[in-house]
Amino acid sequence: MLFSVAATSERSAWAVGLTGGVFGQRPETLILRWNGTAWRRVPSPNAATPGSWLGAVAVASARKAWAVGCACNGQRLKTLIERWNGKRWRIVPSPSPATGDSVLYGVAVTSARSAWAVGCTRCTGDKPETLILQWNGTRWKRLPSPNPARGGTLASVAVTSARNAWAAGYTSGPNQQRRKTVIEHWNGTRWTLVPSPPPARSAYLFGIAAASARSAWAVGLISGLFSAQPKTLALHWNGTTWK
Fold first, then answer.
1. pTM
2. What is the number of alpha carbons within 13 Å of residue 190 lying toward its C-beta?
3. What is the pLDDT of residues 188-217, one digit of tens each?
């Protein structure tokens, strides 16, 4: 099963996910590489015990790529970050809060010294907390990130410059019919919550992309209160508001 793909040219692309499926007995990280002709599996390091997966990949160059996800260490879920150095993938130490299960769902990279990863901590609890990590060229560190009143999860991140980045996700809520969209912005100094349109029904954001400080898109779904057929959701940033 593959969750994410990133490409730098017609002859170079990466795809990541897991083997065995989400409900498999022994899932392991899965990385495939496109060489211009065919997809081939590349050796991927796994966490201490089986139960690891990669949910997102981002590529900066032929010698620089990041993949993020989750490592199952015993009964705990911890952040998992892997790095491509041009020859092989290696696990890189990443902050994993001790307060509960932690997962990374999104990653974005702009240079060898700048990358972001987002997800949640206390993920399996009633009130998850947003989780944002930053790569400063030497190590990954956790940065403060705001949390909605109901708790929140960040599913995707996009970056255009050192002073402009976006992260998108959804709130927790007591049930799935009351989830709301969550959008956070990085201004070069800190992350802040930005108002986003609250659909009348439960809504999720799973992906975000930014072209400039005045143009960005976030996508997801709206699920009906009593309907099994969700509807697509697309939001646009015009430089002032999300619509």
1. 0.92
2. 6
3. 999 999 999 877 778 999 999 999 999 999
